[in-house]
Inverse folding.
């Protein structure tokens, strides 16, 4: 499983703060991300929670999707910076 991957790369700290703000607002956001095969995906969802498991950061959507944060490409068309 992907959460066990030791090559997890933490996302930009300021971007993490934005994710927390979107989660607090509980408004739908457009999540653009890469699936486990590296294919681009997009989904509109409410960010329900942000958490760490096995040294990797995740977000949980209202639909129950778990998304590892280093797979995010953009949220609401705002690109995730490549470094902190």
């Amino acid at each position: 499983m992907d959460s066990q991957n030791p090559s997890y790369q933490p996302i930009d700290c300021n971007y993490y703060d934005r994710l927390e703000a979107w989660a607090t607002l509980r408004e739908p956001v457009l999540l653009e991300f890469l699936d486990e095969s590296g294919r681009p995906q997009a989904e509109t969802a409410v960010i329900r929670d942000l958490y760490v498991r096995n040294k990797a950061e995740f977000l949980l959507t209202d639909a129950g999707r778990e998304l590892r944060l280093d797979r995010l490409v953009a949220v609401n068309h705002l690109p995730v910076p490549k470094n902190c």
Summary: The chain has a mean pLDDT of 91. The beta strands are 29-34, 40-45, 47-53, 56-61, 66-68, 72-75, 78-79.
